[in-house]
């Protein structure tokens, strides 16, 4: 824990213990520097953190004061209860209609699936890419065909090793982003008409991929903190001919839950008993907030049944479209599918990322990125607590850059989406994350963009619109 986080935690405890009460003035920056033997920057960071949590407030020319809280922290949503059994999908048109709205740069991007590009080392990556293009060995256009550039696959394998997973570079197939990887995995382990178990809610692009391949889904209850219900999954495995399980086990999008490392091992063992492959969508795993990185389920794989999919799009290089699959016993099939669908992933970009991973300071960048997302999460949670109506629930994520919010019953987030767009604010309404368009009173918010007075105001406007949609308001 850094010094400013320690100072913020000490101050938070004084407030929770009642030693500092609503209206009390905190030490000035100069006084706090002297008391705690820290720099002014450290004190200001601590105060900004506490302000983002809604514990203190700045008063012009007066300093920082303990804030009168409007109530307890909001409760988290309960385990989801998706309705019905297996279902064919018809979601793409509906999703495209919603997604078109987040492309406008003038819109506050709470509904976006992307973090701010300003947070990534694009200049350094650009220099690596320019060098790769200048010095490209013409033979690389052949040697770097699938499974991909050898050095990049070696660097990815080293990252697996640092997280307790022994994955050979020969098991890794480089893809054009994680979405191509997920599509290749689904094609490798299923045929049209097969049944795939998914979390509920789940990322809409996964629903689109499943729909495009003519597959059916069975939605499994999921907890916003603990992840997919293993008991419900086991019941489904007993009752239905499930051919694959597609899960996001670390900071799932949209509900943000994570399976503990112990329960990941249970999941892998459960699926091994039924000989059902696990497609592990793990694009947010590097964006954890604590000191300890979460494990991959891949680390528990003893039978080659875990197909681990990830990319650099969320952690390092948005727009470069470099992902990969560690395909277990299905690696050769995935490599051949890759060759017959898109042939290869852009060679200079693979070389540039390999060079950056070797010499670019990836871990230093990740530490800064995690710290930024953690602070922005605190700021957004505080704003939701201040501005959203009573009866709101939210799931506190331990990584990633999304917040899953459950609004009071009766609020229609599709209507909220339309009204918010009229005010220049996008959201991701809950129904786009469900095969049956459930979660009509839920939404996903993106805190992956710098927190500013404008974003605070946008949350306040959302809160006002939500209030207007409450049933007791006559809507």
- Termini separation comes to 47 Å
| Share of helix, binned | 40-55%
Shape: globular
Percent strand: 5-15%
Average pLDDT works out at 91
Major beta sheet, strand line-up: 4-11-10-9-8-5-6-7
Sheet of most strands: 8 strands, mixed
Rg calculated over all Cα atoms = 23 Å
Given the helix and strand composition, which structural class is it? alpha/beta
So how many helices?
Answer: 16
Low-pLDDT regions? none
Number of strands: 16
Quick description:
With 475 residues, this protein is of the alpha/beta class. The chain contains 16 helices and 16 strands.
Please supply descriptive tags for the structure shown above.
475 residues; globular; eight-stranded mixed β-sheet; four-stranded antiparallel β-sheet; alpha/beta; 16 helices
């Amino acid at each position: 824990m850094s010094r400013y986080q320690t100072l913020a935690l000490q101050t938070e405890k004084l407030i929770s213990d009642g030693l500092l009460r609503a209206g009390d003035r905190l030490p000035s920056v100069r006084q706090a520097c002297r008391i705690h033997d820290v720099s002014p920057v450290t004190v200001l960071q601590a105060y900004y953190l506490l302000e983002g949590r809604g514990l203190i407030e700045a008063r012009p020319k007066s300093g920082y004061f303990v804030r009168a809280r409007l109530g307890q922290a909001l409760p988290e949503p309960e385990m989801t209860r998706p309705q019905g059994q297996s279902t064919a999908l018809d979601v793409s048109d509906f999703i495209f209609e919603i997604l078109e709205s987040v492309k406008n740069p003038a819109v506050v991007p709470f509904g976006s699936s992307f973090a701010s590009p300003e947070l990534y080392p694009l200049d350094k990556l650009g220099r690596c890419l320019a060098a790769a293009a200048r010095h490209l060995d013409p033979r690389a256009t052949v040697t770097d065909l699938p499974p991909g550039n050898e050095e990049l696959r070696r660097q990815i394998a080293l990252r697996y090793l640092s997280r307790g997973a022994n994955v050979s570079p020969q098991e890794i197939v480089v893809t054009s982003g994680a979405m191509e990887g997920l599509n290749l995995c689904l094609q490798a382990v299923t045929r049209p008409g097969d049944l795939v178990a998914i979390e509920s809610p789940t990322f809409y692009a996964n629903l689109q991929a499943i729909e495009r391949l003519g597959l059916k889904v069975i939605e499994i209850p999921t907890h916003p903190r603990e992840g997919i219900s293993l008991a419900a999954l086991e019941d489904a495995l007993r009752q239905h001919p499930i051919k694959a399980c597609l899960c996001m086990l670390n900071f799932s999008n949209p509900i943000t839950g994570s399976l503990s490392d112990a329960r990941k091992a249970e999941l892998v063992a459960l699926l091994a008993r039924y000989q059902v492959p696990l497609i592990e969508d793990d694009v947010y795993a590097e964006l954890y907030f604590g000191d300890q990185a979460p494990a991959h389920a891949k680390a528990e794989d003893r039978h080659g049944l875990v197909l681990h999919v990830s990319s650099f799009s969320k952690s390092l290089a948005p727009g470069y479209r470099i992902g990969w699959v560690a395909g277990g016993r299905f690696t050769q099939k995935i490599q051949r599918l890759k060759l017959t669908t898109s042939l290869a992933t852009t060679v200079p970009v693979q070389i540039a990322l390999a060079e950056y991973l070797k010499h670019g300071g990836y871990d230093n960048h990740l530490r800064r990125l995690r710290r930024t997302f953690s602070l922005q999460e605190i700021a957004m949670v505080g704003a939701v607590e201040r501005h959203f109506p009573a009866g709101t629930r939210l799931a506190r994520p331990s990584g990633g850059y999304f917040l899953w919010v459950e609004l009071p019953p009766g609020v229609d987030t599709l209507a909220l989406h339309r009204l918010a767009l009229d005010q220049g604010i996008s959201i991701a309404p809950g129904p786009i994350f469900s095969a049956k368009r459930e979660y009509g009173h839920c939404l996903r918010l993106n805190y992956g963009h710098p927190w500013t007075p404008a974003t605070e105001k946008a949350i306040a406007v959302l809160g006002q619109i939500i209030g207007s949609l409450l049933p007791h308001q006559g809507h």
